[in-house]
Write a structure and sequence with these properties.
Layout: E1 16-19, E2 22-29, E3 34-40, E4 45-49, E5 54-68, E6 71-76, E7 80-83, E8 89-104
Antiparallel strand pairs: 1-2, 2-3, 3-8, 4-8, 5-6, 5-7, 5-8
Length: about 110
């Protein structure tokens, strides 16, 4: 797999609906790394799930209840969280907001 693009203009990428009140854009990737922008309406849920990828997420805006391995924390703009491979995790938007997700390796299931 090669790099999709060296320069990415977010306004040229369409949002993809991925659940009720949740949409995302893939902002760049190669076979080792991927970044995605995910927007949530208030009350929207990223259901608890797990995957083989490492994930680090930056809270760009809003307030989220984040669950990792059964532990819950309230995170706000500027906070972040790290998810180890196969750790159960999910989020609930306590107010409308957006997250920047980075995965290693690439989430081929997103492409």
């Amino acid at each position: 797999m090669s790099i999709k693009k060296a320069f990415i203009a977010s306004d040229k990428i369409a949002w993809e609906s991925v659940g009720q009140g949740v949409q995302r854009k893939i902002l760049g990737y190669d076979d080792q790394l991927m970044m995605a922008h995910v927007q949530f309406e208030k009350g929207a849920i990223g259901t608890v799930h797990h995957h083989i990828h490492r994930q680090v997420t930056f809270v760009e805006s809003g307030v989220f209840e984040v669950t990792i391995n059964g532990e819950k924390r309230k995170l706000k703009k500027g906070d972040s969280f790290f998810v180890e491979p196969d750790a159960p995790h999910g989020v609930m938007a306590l107010e409308a907001g957006s997250l920047i997700d980075v995965f290693a390796p690439v989430r081929e299931d997103f492409l």
